[in-house]
Amino acid sequence: MTRSKNKGVLMVVSGPAGVGKGTVCDAVALSCRDVFLSVSATSRKPREGEIEGVHYYFKTKEEFENMIKNKELIEYNRYVNGNYYGTPAAPIDQHLEKGESVILEIDVEGGKQIKKKRPDAVMVFVVPPSFMELERRLRGRATESEEDILARLERAKVEFELSAIYDYIVVNDTVENAAEKVKAIIAAEKCKTQRCIDEIRKNIQGGNL
Ligand code: 5GP
User: Which structural domain, as residue segments, surrounds residue 144?
Assistant: First the structure.
């Protein structure tokens, strides 16, 4: 059979702040050249070491609100601390059309918006081995104020409840294990009959099978 020209998998990865989902997604992208990590826009200030266009597109509140007005975002959310986060729409289909899988590392609210607009999206929720471990990781990061940490822990409880709409739960016990599971999910999703059947039919009709 000729090589499949199937589109890549659109995957949403969510999970509470501090669970390490960013590190897991980075590990997946590092070992898979055909996985693109979507770069979100945000109105929050860069943390030390964060690079424009790599970690986020850093925008002012006004710039972000213009992106919303111009419908440049496929989803967005505004947090209680007033910061906006959103996913630029254009790059998603550009990469999927090339056969690359696209990972959106976004919160549950954003995930719900994506699922509504793109029912084909594969939803993955990353959890820590325990809630205590999540608190330990958040405090270990030492980038947020105590107030921010407590707000993120409260939010994590709400997000755990909402994870029921997700297709898969991945425990981030070690980054390697979690990344392997995410890669396995992408591989399995690519094999789904509904994704392949049209291509197989075309091959049969074209005498390529
Ligand atoms: P942080 O400030 O730690 O980088 O991110 C805070 C939260 O924002 C994380 O839970 C992250 O998943 C979420 N987030 C990052 N980018 C986006 C986005 O484009 N859309 C939405 N809805 N959430 C996002």
Answer: 10-38+101-205
